[in-house]
TrEMBL record:
Positions of the HD domain: 5-58
Transmembrane spans: none
Keyword terms of this UniProt record: Kinase, Nucleotide-binding, Transferase
Name recorded for this polypeptide: Uridylate kinase
Gene field: URA6
Organism expressing this protein natively: Colletotrichum tanaceti
GO function terms (MF aspect): ATP binding; nucleobase-containing compound kinase activity
The family this protein is said to belong to: Belongs to the adenylate kinase family.
Pfam families: ADK, HD_3
Entry's Gene Ontology BP terms: nucleobase-containing compound metabolic process
Keyword Nucleotide-binding: yes
Length: 280
């Protein structure tokens, strides 16, 4: 039933809450923040990693009551464990090597056998190039035609959302053809570090920073054959002899620096592309 006497007091109570000048008002405001923190944590948990709501964690700093702080710390501890569980099980593997070395073939088999998803950076760029609404289509087309490495900022823009979407489903990611330069590798690590610090609120997901690299090694001669054979049926702009030579030159000029950089990381493997597909 309604209570008219209490109804007349609501404006006064609301003003007291809004001003936050009384001890009761300050306590209620902190309780409200604790409730908001808890609801954000529970929502992320129910969504099973499809959304990351870490931007709400700052609410803990708005509390001063000892009991409320203790409750907030418990929530944040559970939240950190949740974040870890939603990313730790998802591997992220860079698969690099020259044109025609078999990156796509190997990734297709590994993805099938180990429940990974295969992401080809080249395919992402070509999809963006062919999109009528893309602002970068002409630029990407000219870059591919001239075998020029696309700037890290553009590659990251296309790549990160795809990785995040896959990892949110609890699957590992095989990234075919990335990084092609040290600057791309550094840009990836900086992006992951930004998301991990908890200060970046633009992304709904956190990308796992636990990545490894597989380098498929092959001679220039062994790489040329498969690409030239593919060019007879391929619609790709970069599958002709003239562009292929540029691609090989670009790969050779930038490859060693990339190998030197990535080989210093803990998880690094080199395999000959001449081995059987099932071996890898």
């Amino acid at each position: 039933t309604s209570n008219p006497s209490w109804a007349t007091k609501l404006p006064e109570i609301w003003l007291e809450y809004e001003s936050g000048e009384t001890r009761v008002a300050r306590l209620v405001r902190q309780v409200d923040k604790l409730e908001c923190l808890h609801q954000a944590y529970m929502y992320q948990k129910r969504q099973k990693g499809n959304f990351r709501l870490g931007e709400f964690k700052y609410l803990r700093e708005r509390m001063t009551d000892p009991w409320l702080l203790d409750q907030a710390n418990r929530i944040l501890a559970d939240w950190e464990a949740l974040d870890a569980s939603q990313t730790a099980s998802t591997g992220l593997v860079f698969v690099i090597g020259g044109p025609g070395v078999g990156k796509g073939t190997q990734c297709t088999h590994v993805a099938k056998d180990f429940d990974f998803q295969h992401v080809s950076v080249g395919d992402l760029l070509r999809q963006e190039q062919d999109s009528p609404r893309s602002l970068f289509g002409d630029f990407i087309r000219e870059s591919i035609r001239n075998s020029v490495i696309v700037p890290p900022s553009l590659t990251m823009l296309l790549l990160m959302e795809r990785i995040q979407s896959i990892q949110s489903m609890g699957k590992g990611v095989l990234i075919d053809g990335f990084p092609r330069s040290v600057s791309q590798a550094v840009a990836f690590e900086q992006e992951v570090r930004c998301q991990s610090c908890g200060l970046c609120t633009l992304s709904r997901w956190k990308v796992s920073d636990n990545y490894s690299t597989i380098y498929l090694e092959a001679s220039t001669e062994s790489m040329m054959g498969p690409v030239l054979e593919r060019s007879s049926v391929s619609q790709r702009d970069d599958d002709n002899a003239a562009v292929l030579r540029k691609r090989m030159d670009t790969f050779q000029s930038s490859n060693q620096a990339v190998l030197d950089y990535l080989s210093q990381k803990p998880l690094w493997k080199v395999w000959s592309s001449m081995c059987e597909v099932n071996y890898i």
